[in-house]
Design brief:
Blueprint: H1 2-23, H2 30-39, H3 44-61, H4 69-82, H5 91-102, H6 104-118
Helix pairs in contact: 1-3, 1-6, 3-4, 3-5, 5-6
Length: about 120
């Protein structure tokens, strides 16, 4: 699931970068892009997904107490809930919907992520 989310995250970031460059200003370096992703309100909704991936990484990297089946199930449930685009939603759900409306690549990435999630049961 983590790898699928990372792929989806990259595709969403690429799409948002293109939209930012079209609508706001050209991004001239990787450092500038990283700064925008971390600080600019334009990219704020995607930070929700970024933070969720970090949460997964932290759970997987714990040495003292490996992730339990219950924790893994909870993360899967949270991912399923998060990956619902919503035209009337807020934050990530709303932006996810908007991105999917303009960029067919993100629709395919969403489909791929749904297939990953289907393979996880529950």
């Amino acid at each position: 699931m983590r790898n699928g989310l990372l792929t989806l995250h990259k595709i969403l970031l690429d799409s948002e970068r293109a939209a930012y460059e079209r609508d706001v200003a050209r991004i001239t370096s990787t450092g500038q892009f990283l700064g925008l992703v971390l600080e600019d309100p334009f990219f704020q909704p995607l930070r929700e997904l970024s933070q969720f991936i970090v949460l997964i990484d932290e759970a997987l990297d714990r040495k003292e107490s490996p992730i339990t089946e219950g924790e893994a199930d909870q993360l899967v449930k949270q991912a399923r809930k998060m990956l619902v685009p919503a035209e009337e939603g807020n934050g990530f759900a709303r932006r996810y919907f908007e991105i999917m409306q303009r960029d067919p690549t993100t629709v395919l990435a969403h489909r791929d992520m749904l297939q990953v999630m289907a393979g996880l049961g529950n």
